[in-house]
Design goal:
With 105 residues, this protein is mainly alpha-helical. It folds into 2 domains: 70 residues, no CATH class; 34 residues, no CATH class. 74% of the residues lie in helices and 0% in strands. Helix 1 packs across helix 2 and helix 1 packs parallel to helix 3. The longest helix is centred in the middle third of the chain and has 23 residues.
């Protein structure tokens, strides 16, 4: 399974480079793919330690980047911080869960 996730991650990272207008040849591309596969492997290792299935990169992000034109990693850091804060204060997550699905859609 880990080999399959590494292959999938390589394809997802290459597609991400294409929609982000990053080079798909050269040393910077190789470094980006190596870092992504390493992070994916560490993430899957942590999942295995907690008796869970391996995690992979999400190709849905490529569609979001293509639709919005925003490919900054700082947006990812910002969203990660928001999710961390929501995890630290479950009452906020509970309030957000009470929003009806049609409103969110």
């Amino acid at each position: 399974i880990y080999l399959i996730t590494a292959i999938e991650s390589t394809g997802d990272l290459t597609a991400n480079c294409i929609v982000s207008h990053q080079p798909i040849k050269g040393e910077s591309y190789i470094q980006r793919v190596k870092g992504g596969v390493l992070a994916d492997g560490i993430n899957s290792l942590l999942a295995a330690l907690f008796n869970s299935m391996p995690n992979t990169t999400f190709s849905q992000n490529n569609g979001v980047i293509q639709l919005t034109g925003v490919a900054s990693r700082y947006i990812g850091y910002y969203i990660g911080a928001v999710l961390f804060i929501l995890g630290m204060f479950p009452i906020i997550g509970g309030v957000l869960q009470n929003i009806p699905k049609p409103v969110l859609g």
